[in-house]
Amino acid sequence: MHRTIFTTPLVNRFLRAASLAFLKFKGWKIDGSLPPGQSKYVLIAAPHTSNWDLPYTLMVAFALQLTPYWMGKSQIFRWPFGGLMRWLGGIAVNREQSSNLVAASAAALVAADGPVQLIVPPEGTRSKTRYWKTGFYWIAHTAQVPIVMAYMDYPRKLSGLGPVFVPTGDIEADMVRIKAYYAQFKGKNWQQFDHQ
Questions:
Q1: Which of the two ends of the chain, N or C, has the fewest CB atoms closer than 10 A to its terminal CB?
Q2: pTM, to two decimals
Q3: Which domain holds residue 118?
Q4: Is residue 3 one of the residues assigned to a domain?
Q5: How far apart are CA 123 and CA 133, in angstroms?
Q6: 149 in helix, strand or coil?
């Protein structure tokens, strides 16, 4: 995969140290790690209820020494911001060559030539939402990669990587299990997050 802010040596070391110091100062506890033997994952980013989720997610990614990426429409990778978007972990997805973003994202994940943790928020929005979008699930299932249940709990100041989940294709049964795990966590604006 292309070099990002997470794989640029000097920048990575500095931002990891700064992230660890800031999280410790704020009283956050970070836990978990990626299991060995697998280089590609889809990471659920939940609960996602605030703009603060992004900087905290980036700091946790530095603290855990992850190499996260995210998918974006190819239009945002055009000049003059394309280089910056890629350096921040963006992967351009051409939706015109695919019937939907899930298929295009899965294809990009399969084609990646290095470690990739693709971060996907299931709510798809910071606004109050009743139903989770299932794109993260179908990307993982289509690309045949496991899901890591990453979490961020603001009241307890806990964040990290939870269990690995392998999608079976029975989305109704699998989503019940996934949401049951996330029922223990609360986002910054937890009233906006519905586990149903």
A1: C
A2: 0.81
A3: 9-192
A4: no
A5: 6
A6: strand
